Amino acid sequence: MGHETAGPLAARVRELLDHAQDGVVPIVRAGEPVLRRRAPAYRGELDAGLLNDLIASMFATMRAAPGVGLAAPQIGLPLALAVIEDPGAADPDVAQTRERYPVAPMVLVNPRYEPVDTDVAEFYEGCLSIPGWVAVRRRRRTVRLRAETLDGTSTVATTSGWLARIVQHETDHLAGELFLDRAEPRSLAHESLAARWAGPADPTLAAEALGFDLSGP
């Protein structure tokens, strides 16, 4: 990728970082148009230093929220870039049921994914751009991730379990989609009830109490 230092995107990134507090920048909320537009591919518009500063700020912002993934549109940048990091589930039963294990920091440049098979998984999900609400989202259990490294090298990896869920969630952001767009409407729960319904390893109790179906794709 190139090392251009000028241009509107670079200026926008510099302005954003100039106003960061300890690297943390504001997260935009649902209703902002940037979250509903397909993010343009990254084509080397930022020099290496500015790109690294942006990525560091995205990680800082994600961790402060806290969250396990953050896409550039969520900080107001129309750019196909996302970061992921997950400490995993502390409860062994939750970890096993959700296949949620620690994920080291990842940077996704121009990511896209495709299903590997027809297996699906249904769990509660939330989003940093929709604070205060969680809902059950059916997603592919295993997807093939295609992305680029920071130097432009193409990579392919098969991801499963919770990592696959995060990959789909963040990559969908870059296509202008929010997780609620295809979530189970009757599962929607306010954060004051999140522990009750999203806390258990799976949403079976929520489905019975709130009246939605978990069966099949």
Automatic annotation (TrEMBL):
EC number: 3.5.1.88
Catalytic activity: N-terminal N-formyl-L-methionyl-[peptide] + H2O = N-terminal L-methionyl-[peptide] + formate
SUPFAM superfamilies associated with the record: Peptide deformylase
Cofactor requirement: Fe(2+)
Record CDD domains: Pep_deformylase
Entry keyword Nuclease: no
Binding positions (Fe cation): 127, 169, 173
InterPro entries from the UniProt entry: Peptide_deformylase (IPR023635), Peptide_deformylase_sf (IPR036821)
Keyword field: Hydrolase, Iron, Metal-binding, Protein biosynthesis
Pfam families cross-referenced by the UniProt entry: Pep_deformylase (PF01327)
Catalytic residues identified in the record: 170
Coiled coil: none
Family: Belongs to the polypeptide deformylase family.
Role this protein plays: Removes the formyl group from the N-terminal Met of newly synthesized proteins. Requires at least a dipeptide for an efficient rate of reaction. N-terminal L-methionine is a prerequisite for activity but the enzyme has broad specificity at other positions.
Record-given protein name: Peptide deformylase
Source species: Occultella glacieicola
